[in-house]
Amino acid sequence: MTVRQTMERLEEQYLSPYASFSSKSRGRDEQEEPCDIRTVYQRDRDRILHSKAFRRLKHKTQVFLSPEGDHYRTRLTHTLEVSQIARTIAKSLRLNEDLTEAIALGHDLGHTPFGHSGEHVLDQICPEGFAHYEQSVRVVERLEKGGKGLNLTWEVRDGIRNHRTSGHPSTLEGAVVRLSDKIAYINHDIDDAIRAKLFVEEDLPSRFTDVLGHSVRERLNLAIHDTIANSLDKPMISMSPGMEEAMKGLRQWMFDHVYCSDIPKAEEEKAKQLIVFLYQYYCSHVDRLPREYQIMMEERNEKKERVVCDYIAGMSDRYAIDKFEELFIPQAWKV
What we know:
Blueprint: H1 3-14, H2 40-49, H3 52-56, H4 75-92, H5 97-106, H6 115-125, H7 132-147, H8 154-161, H9 172-195, H10 206-212, H11 216-231, H12 241-259, H13 262-265, H14 268-284, H15 291-300, H16 304-313, H17 317-328
């Protein structure tokens, strides 16, 4: 018996009957020889972790565009924080921690430079539209490894696609990531906003903090405990009604006072225009795209608008700025 088979047997003995067992995965689009030491979900986690798209997250905006300071969240640190919260919940509920981690690490791979500002402008200008959760699936299915994709299991891709608020994951592990994403970004965005001196903790509405907690640490602790207590040995992942209502209220307060406030929005129009210029340029000069993107049009008959979106969405904030300067800003002449 291999190490993998031993681990699969241990899963069936220990995990909740509502968990997703590695041995019962719906599999991959392309059949592969099983690994002798890793389960299918462990392999998926490792493939995501070693992907180029994952590494690029360290230079992609979470909320604040190009913040001055080393302690503000990026898309990568957000992803790691979601993973930590999700694994804690999954382990306590005896769900498949490896599947949970793979979904969490992959859930934002398709995010654009400049956060949701970049996503919104690409959605407006691309004829087929753009959504980061669909792009995340496209990254793992069609863009990574020179267009071959990562060939992930169906369960991981389903969890990535359905991590959005309106999503309906097919596994409890996917549902854990979906909720953990919200727990993470609401509280960590509060932490960043306080660091940016947008407000102080005491400015948060007491009708929410009296339920959720009066510090980031307390809110994370209470939200995780509440989720575990309300989901243990049940075929669903949920919070208690009072906790869920308060979190929705605090989320809306953050939209009103942070996400749409002047400081995060200060450079947003510049970022949007930058993306528009890049999109228009590459649609008119597809020969300037990297060769791997040209091949997508030539051999896979991908539309140029979609391929240009792929290229821009994959850029980090810094790379997008550098490309804009290279294409549109006159360079000093040197002898």
